[in-house]
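Posting this for the archive.
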Amino acid sequence: MKKLIVSMAVLLTFPLFHVASIEAEGYGWGYKKNSDHTLPYIGKYEEMLEKYGAYYADKSGEKNVYLTFDNGYEEGYTDDILDVLKKKEVPATFFVTGHYVESEPDLVKRMVDEGHIIGNHSYHHPDFSVISKESMKKELEDLEKAVAEVSEQDDLKYLRPPRGIFNEQTLDWSYELGYLHIFWSLAFIDWETSKQKGWEYAFNQIMDQIHPGAIILLHTVSSDNAQALERLITELHKQGYAFKSLDDLILEDKLPEAVYGYE
């Protein structure tokens, strides 16, 4: 596979998230943003995702949305986010790293105890496209063991690749290891903790891009997200959207056999 160099020129025409000026053996996940409340265009990625059962959205056309959060470190807002999710009875998936599990075991336990899903974001957050299959396996297994040690969830089946970098090989390897990639169809720059712009910014970014079937990527380090979340859920409910779990989206016949212990 040819190397991909993500540059500012690419960012201007095909927005990418988590990735800036990276040279790697893979692709940086991205899509063409729109504000017409329809699925964004993902180009050549569509065929690759279909081949390995990966998801970036719910294509059913139903007004379902899926909240997902990436957690690499804690800024003090996750409890607030969990409080809102509990109050509004909304499920979410939290993709955590080893550092997060080590530093915030009580929060990980709370996520699971309150019915949320823990997803695998790797132990050390490496670029999967430049490491071996064995190294990737160890990253995923170490994170799974860490989560099992602090919570009741001992089986992780959803994977979000670090920095959104992937290629056909990493999709294949993760599928063999029993994981499905979960990308996203709605996101914005929310992880820069020194550049928060207020809850209305987060609210408007999501409402401008919202569409039926959206998998929404947020970061719990954002004070904007924490303050906007309850308002966002209330407004989307008013517009007829239902908040679903990834388990509602993923059909069992699409899960890798390794998930069922048939390795």
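The first helix runs from residue 8 to 13. The radius of gyration is 17 Å.
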